[in-house]
Amino acid sequence: MKMTNNSSSGAQTSPGLxxxxxxxxxxxxxxxxxxxxxxxxxxxxxxxxxxGGVTAPLAFLIAGATLFLAIIAVYVFSEKIANAGGYFKxxxxxxxxxxxxxxxxxxxxxxxxxxxxGASIVVGWFVYVSLIALFNYTLPFYAVVLLSLxxxxxxxxxxxFGIKVATRxxxxxxxxxxxxFVIVASALLGLSGHHSLAAFNIANSTNGLYGFFxxxxxxxxxxxxxxxxxxxxxxxxxxxxRSLKKAIVTALLIMVAFDTFVVYAIVASSGSNFxxxxxxxxxxxxxxxxxxxxxxxxxxxxxxxxxxxxxxVIFGNSGARTIFALARDGVLPSSLAKVHxxxxxxxxxxxWLFVALFVGVIATIAGFVAALGVANGLFYGFSAxxxxxxxxxxxxxxxxxxxxxxxxxxxxxxxxxxFHIVGPAIASVIMAIAIYYSLAGLSGPLLxxxxxxxxxxxxxxxxxxxxxxxxxxxxxxxxxK
Length: 481
Known about the structure:
The chain has 19 helices and no strands. The protein has one domain: Up-down Bundle (Amino acid/polyamine transporter I). The longest helix is centred in the N-terminal third of the chain and has 38 residues, at 98-135. By secondary structure, the protein is mostly helical.
């Protein structure tokens, strides 16, 4: 198997990933753009409102607070380990177990694939429902499919030409979203004159605790899921062991404040018409038109669509690097660990990820639309993916949290019990509760998520077992180089 110059063996038969390609603010907005600020206004905010009702802002706030506890483990690991494998290399450093660590790698890969497939479908769905809401125009179905395929195609282009293209795009798109939607949210609150603390009372959840935790899973946790995406850039970040941890904290601080405020503005400005607003499937667009006119609403629609395209396009880079790292460790074919001589991107991994995304988008749309019609089929199609991937992101965060103390013990470093054990454990418990409540009450089309989760876990274990003779587990010393 060919190794990059970043591998532990030090072999240099092919070029490595581009060193010092991404600096601090590039890392921050890489994470911010993947989190997708416009999503709180138009996508993840909507799913949280559908399942949690007026308590959607509280779901975003509590999920954010939970992740600040979960961030402890990521913070400590990222100052010790800078590796394209990201989370699964953190768990590997703690457990030294190939089945556990490589499974986490596959879970992270599923998270990236599912997020991009779901987000691709969201592009077609959001344009479809927004044009109906704004102009009473029904987009032809073939156009919906073509819109949904824009993301995989752009990902292939951006991913192939290297990480610098992705980070520059992320900084521009991220800033535009934050500035524009803070202005719109503030205007909605001012023009509506509606303000209420009902949104922060969990007793007001539409479907009780089940609805609230499902809102956290398919709304808030899903929205924030990209905050740790930068750990996959460990081999390409400037001063990685300093900049990664700071960028993760900065990005999450920005997005918890932003998302909670924007979702609150939509819920509060809906007033007594909340059910009508949410039934539009595009509440932010609907309210913008009601209070600020068609021009502002259409501009919001355009920014959401461009941001929704940019977010998964950028996120795909993290998935390609997970594939690259798994291949470098021998879990996947060695050809997937090749790096482009000119662009220093994992181009083979990028191409194969594109193929998986293309097939995933077509298969999901075909199945769900055939069963449920266009609007509902697209909505439940991406909701099923988002439910499954959020369970996986919670799972790999739980394993990362619980690996921290093991890692510190293996490196013989002093363990701070409140900081290194209690905090991550509390986060893990809350995440486990969220997983339980979100899966226990699934029904109808969303039951597909259960099937996806079980199949991927089993398939991952089978692949690791079949490749066990080729699989490398790096020592703590090698990972900390």
